[in-house]
Design goal:
Layout (H helix, E strand, L loop, with lengths): L17 H12 L4 E2 L8 H14 L3 E6 L6 H14 L12 E4 L2 E4 L5 H11 L4 E6 L8 H14 L3 E5 L1
Parallel strand pairs: 1-6, 2-5, 5-6
Antiparallel strand pairs: 3-4
Helix pairs in contact: 1-2, 3-4, 4-5
């Protein structure tokens, strides 16, 4: 459908965005994190989804998380655990106080501290993985803690890249 208003997921559904798609893919492959900015309704989500699909076809693991309505690190952690389990992303979690490893994937241990758990989880990702966070401004309430976690991940796990928007 030519003028479908829902976010696109394939490049042939986008118009005039080839250079942006290629630029973002180059940045991610170079180990850089990317921010996609702009006003509402210009196609940022479509651009993100197309890039993630193409990077996935190129062999990278990709995760799309829409954080609209999410305003706690615990909720973000739950979404991330679900996506990591769904995509069967390899983790280095041998002895962990924060997580339980089972046949269905990983689950959060009772009484785990959210900050430490989210940091441990992101640092333990053991495959080239790109995480796209859509509507990241929704996390403004916890931005101070999130920035600390992301700073540690940026320096501690080069296998993880983020695309924010």
């Amino acid at each position: 459908m030519l003028f479908n208003l829902h976010p696109k997921e394939h490049r042939d559904e986008l118009f005039g965005r080839d250079s942006e798609v290629e630029y973002i893919k180059r940045q991610v492959r170079a180990g850089n994190w990317v921010i996609i900015g702009g006003q509402r309704g210009i196609g940022k989500t479509s651009l993100l989804k197309v890039v993630l699909n193409e990077l996935s076809r190129d062999g990278l693991k990709t995760i799309y998380i829409n954080v609209r309505g999410i305003n706690t690190l615990r909720d973000l952690l739950s979404l991330l655990i679900n996506e990591l389990n769904k995509h069967k992303i390899s983790l280095r979690l041998s002895l962990s106080l924060n997580f339980i490893l089972g046949s269905a994937g990983i689950t959060l241990s009772r009484g785990s501290r959210v900050f430490n758990s989210l940091l441990e989880l992101l640092l333990s990702i053991n495959e080239e993985t790109v995480i796209g966070l859509d509507e990241v401004q929704e996390l403004s309430r916890v931005s101070g803690q999130l920035i600390k976690i992301l700073g540690n991940v940026f320096t501690g796990n080069p296998k993880v890249s983020f695309i924010f928007m």
